[in-house]
Structure formats: structure tokens, C-alpha cells
Amino acid sequence: MYEYFEHTADVGIRVRAASLEELFAEAGAALMAFMLDAPAPGPTATQRTFELAADDLEELLHEWLSELLYTYETEHLVLGDFRVKLRDNALTAEGWAEPLVPKRHLPSHEVKAVTYHALTVQQGDNGYLAEVVLDI
């Protein structure tokens, strides 16, 4: 589950999930849903794999979302349906990707960058919570 919150001239994403893997998958879905009104890859999608590592979970979340944004911006790919595996601050994720078709995917918000401002990943009584601010 994710929601957006306002943050001065930026926007934040707050994600809740039962596991860290779900948290990272939901954060990726939230980023794509913010940028596109119809973000789901369709029948022409192909599988895409990502592998990342970082010093801690906050940096890993930043790297993950930044990699998705970079892939979207440079390769013009819509990404979704993520399956994430985490181990020792390393991420391996699979998702589906297809070329951006503006009339179908409906771009709605431009994201300039994923920031470190107020970035948090924490475990609570009911699972995990993450917050990240996007520069728009």
C-alpha cells in the first residue's frame, strides 16, 4: 500500500508493507504510478532484471527508485509488476518493461530526482514503512 504526501515544492511517497521485499516492490509501483496515469505494462512487455547493492536499506531504496527513474527517462520504458529479493543490503528485482506509448500510458508528472531528504525505511509492529521525497 502506498500514498503520496505533499512536501513543499516536492512530493513524498509513503509505503507500508508486510515485508521488505513487498516494500521495495510497492515503492517502485508508486513511483511509476506517480509519473503515469496508466502505468501497467501490457501484452508486449518483456522481463527486465535489476541488481543493486548499497551500504544500508535507505541508500538501497534510493538506488532502486533512481534506477527505475533512470531507465524510464533514458530508455523510455514503462516498468511494473516487480518481484524483489533482498539479501545483505543487495537487491535483485525482476519486472516487466515495455516502450512508453504516451497515448496509452498517459504521462502525468515529471520527476527530476529521488532525494535523500527525509528518506527512511523502518520496521514497525505491523511490518515496514518507508518514506521518500521526489524532486518534481
What is the alpha-carbon Rg in Å?
Answer: 14 Å
**Count the strands?**
8
Instruction: Label the overall shape.
Output: globular
Task: Bin the strand percentage.
Answer: 35-45%
How far apart are the termini? 22 Å
Q: Which stretches are poorly predicted, pLDDT < 50 over at least 5 residues?
A: none
Query: Class by helix and strand content?
Result: alpha+beta
N-to-C series of helices and strands: EEHEHEEHEEE
Describe the oligomeric state of these chains in a short phrase: single chain
Q: What's the total helix number?
A: 3
Q: Work out the helicity level.
A: 25-40%
Rounded mean pLDDT is 93
Outline the structure in words.
The protein has 136 residues and is of the alpha+beta class. Helices cover 29% and strands 43% of the residues. It contains three helices and eight strands, in the order E-E-H-E-H-E-E-H-E-E-E. It has helices at residues 20-35, 57-75, 102-105, and strands at residues 2-7, 10-17, 46-53, 77-87, 90-99, 113-114, 120-124, 127-135. The strands form two sheets. Strands 1, 2, 6, 7 and 8 form a five-stranded antiparallel beta sheet that branches. It has a three-stranded antiparallel beta sheet with strand order 3-5-4. Strand 4 and strand 5 (90-99) form a beta hairpin. Helix 1 (20-35) packs parallel to helix 2 (57-75). The longest helix is centred in the middle third of the chain and has 19 residues, at 57-75. The mean pLDDT is 93.
